[in-house]
User: What shape does this take?
Amino acid sequence: MKNNSLDDGKKDFILFSKMHGLGNDYIVIDETDEEIIPEEKKGEIVKTLCRRGFSVGADGVIFASPATLQDADIQFRIFNSDGSESEMCGNGIRCFSKFVYDNGIVRKDKIRVETIAGIKKVDLIVENGKVAFSKVDMGTSTFKTSKIPMISDEDEFLDDELLVEGKLINMSVVNVGNPHAVIFSPDFDNVPLETLGPAIETHEAFPQKINVHFVDILNKNEIRMITWERGAGITFACGTGATSCALVGFRLGKLETNVLVHLPGGDLNIEIYEKNGWLGAFMSGDSVLVYDGVIEIKI
Assistant: This one.
């Protein structure tokens, strides 16, 4: 379904698609022909749309917009459920890529997507005219604390301790287009995610907040993880998070280059590569259209 507001004179009706990647769910809106939600109201309306039980409900809202970079086919913008805009989202960009292909907005099986974190290349597997599966080049990562950003005297914060509410927690941080804290937990099944997640997300060491992941290593090619997502809370999955956990595990010698990641909402495959001395990764997984809908919103 091509998303546009229905012109009733006030543009109060918004067409949207509800999608998810492993249960990480999003409202997707097409703004390629016109701006549906004014820029100054996007954050406020996103919060309204994402409020579960009172509106559509979602972990965030994604907008398809015209590309501003010459080398990109289309622009991806994502807002968290708290109304804040994020740089990048792995599950979100897979939903977005399926949305723009299936709706004929960008009819290519190799898409160059503009994000705040740079251009991401997405390869689409198409079956019966619809996207069934996608592989995203997540780009290269950085472990530099200045790039997370993290307030620290260390150049990199890997397998180090941070004092969180009076308790030392061993963690590593990485930026894969957005910031992540990765904690390998020996007591994974008893992690108090609902309390430790927000405490780490909003820790003074992270001036722009941070995504938080707890990891259980099953073997060198397989992990389990749970997530407290910056600006959204507990989510079923996080694509950039799965990428971050695999990269940190590889950097610390705990994991190999190919990692199967089990998330509460399903599985992702992460393939690590090295480019010009930097570590990067491919992320593979599916995305699902739940339904198309229309909602009345005061704009």
Remarks:
- The first strand starts at residue 5 and ends at 6.
- Helices lie at 42-50, 90-102, 193-201, 239-251.
- The chain has a mean pLDDT of 95.
